[in-house]
Amino acid sequence: MKNILLSCIILVVTTITINAQLTVGFKAGLSYSKLEGPSEMFQGDELETKKLSSGFHVGATFNLKITDLFGLRSGLIFNQKGGSYTFKGSSNYFFRNEDPDPPTWLVGTRDMSYKMTNAFIDIPFTAFVKLGPLELHGGVYASILAAGSAGGELIFNGNSRLSGNPVEEIIQTLDYNYYTNTARGASGSLLNYMVDGEQVFAPSIVGAYFDFEEKDGSFLKTFDFGLTAAFNFFINEGLYVGIDLQYGLADLTNDKMDQSYSQLNNDLTRPLLDDKDSNLALNFSIGFSF
Question: Domain boundaries in the chain?
Answer without folding.
Answer: 21-289
